[in-house]
UniProtKB/TrEMBL annotation:
Membership in a protein family: Belongs to the ABC transporter superfamily.
ABC transporter domain mapped to chain residues: 4-234
This protein's name: ABC transporter ATP-binding protein
InterPro entries on file: AAA+_ATPase, ABC_transporter-like_ATP-bd, ABC_transporter-like_CS, ABC_transpr_MalK-like, ABC_transpr_MalK/UgpC-like, Mo/tungstate-bd_C_term_dom, NA-bd_OB-fold, OB_MalK-like
NCBIfam families given in the database record: PRK11650.1
Length: 377
């Protein structure tokens, strides 16, 4: 129970085409995250699944039943919103029990379900308090409790952690991951935060202007982004991009020239690349002080020391910004030129249309494993 199928979903607002034909299958028990920049359509897509927004065309099925025309309450879904949407005059107990009261469920069963949810969410001590006495994180847990008691086929989360501070967001991420492990329920989660997507998802759906840019396991997107959009979006600090010229293709991969230095990147070649301008992608964490297969000289304009790492930012040419993530103790200083080395095997290559040449990296089973669930404390 809890399988979702989206078939050629479109949404227009007048002349604006905001969802442009999305096909997606979400498996039972999967944690799928929709991620993308503001305005890419992720909330609209989630609201269409919930039934809070009509679809312009296409089909939504849940467990093989077409739900296009079913109202939200009959779709077997529960949604958790960014604004917790709690009733301030009701106790935590009554807030969690609310959807069951609407269903006119017997008191004994209400109590059983509310207490079970409160146990999972560590709200047992708070049941008689009003929301005003709770912290932001506790209020969000009440909202999640209200979703749990309905025993939905699918949970939908719309940026549920956005109102929390960074430390609490980190804690709630772990709690939600644990909750998913305990309930084994299908969960669809919308966020613009790629760290939430990477840490919680079994699969990430990256959206770009109403289209799917790529769907994959978090580490699949990290190691094999299919286009510049995903390469830029997944990873923090973001990937660096340098213009290079293709000088040849061979069994070993695609050879490029970067300022007189030659680099053969192990990617699947395509026809007619020779002579073309390509984009070399280098993640900041794959740069090293000193030499590599090629060397890049940078003069940092900003240095950020984070303890474990030091981040150096430099600009060169007209508009190329380069970022290097070095060990915390790295001897890098503002206005002092350093040489950064890059290994060919760590590089990505993109053609002029923004698509990636497929990297010859083997993804291991580990890269597809569902997220590790921390031990309960
Ligand atoms: N009622 C509406 N009428 C017209 N356009 C709308 C309406 N609702 C949303 N849109 C447009 O649809 C696009 C997608 O909006 P949506 O809220 O789904 O994006 P989002 O990815 O969730 O962004 P955010 O992270 O900012 O919430 C946006 O360009 C938005 O302006």
């Amino acid at each position: 129970m809890g399988q979702l199928n989206l078939k050629n979903i479109h949404k227009n607002y007048g002349i604006y085409d905001v969802i442009k034909g999305i096909d997606l299958e979400v498996n039972e028990g999967e944690f799928v995250v929709f991620v993308g920049p503001s305005g890419c359509g992720k909330s609209t897509l989630l609201r269409m699944i919930a039934g809070l927004e009509d679809i312009t065309s296409g089909d939504i099925t849940i467990d093989d039943a077409r739900v296009n025309n079913l109202p939200p309450v009959r779709r077997g879904i529960s949604m958790v919103f960014q604004s917790y949407a709690l009733y301030p005059h009701m106790t935590v107990y009554e807030n969690i029990a609310f959807p069951l009261r609407v269903q006119k469920m017997a008191e004994a069963e209400v109590r059983e379900r509310v207490e079970a949810a409160a146990g999972i969410l560590q709200l047992g001590e708070r049941l008689q308090q009003k929301p005003g006495m709770l912290s932001g994180g506790q209020r969000q847990r009440v909202a999640i409790g209200r979703a749990i008691v309905r025993k939905p086929k699918i949970f939908l989360f719309d940026e549920p952690l956005s109102n929390l501070d960074a430390a609490l967001r980190g804690e709630m991420r772990i709690e939600l991951t644990r909750l998913h492990h305990d309930l084994k329920a299908t969960m669809i989660y919308v966020t613009h935060d790629q760290i939430e997507a990477m840490t919680m998802a079994d699969r990430i759906v990256v959206l770009n202007a109403g289209d799917i840019a790529q769907v994959g396991a978090p580490l699949e997107l990290y190691h094999k982004p299919q286009n510049l959009f995903v390469a830029r979006f997944i990873g923090n600090p973001p990937m660096n991009f340098l213009p290079v010229t293709c000088t040849g293709v061979s069994e070993a991969g695609v050879t490029v020239d970067y300022k007189g230095q030659t680099l053969t990147v192990p990617v699947e070649p395509k026809a007619d690349l020779e002579g073309q301008t390509l984009t070399l992608g280098v993640r900041p964490e794959h740069t090293r002080l000193g030499g590599g297969d090629i060397s890049i000289k940078i003069t940092p304009t900003v240095i950020e020391r984070l303890g474990i790492n030091t981040i150096a930012y430099a600009t060169f040419g007209e508009d190329v910004t380069f970022c290097s993530l070095t060990p915390g103790s790295a001897p890098v200083r503002v206005d002092e030129e350093v040489t950064i080395g890059v290994r060919a095997a760590d590089c990505h290559l993109f053609t002029e249309d923004g698509n990636a040449l497929e990297r010859r990296v083997e993804l291991t089973d580990f890269d597809f494993e569902t997220v590790m669930v921390p031990e309960a404390t």
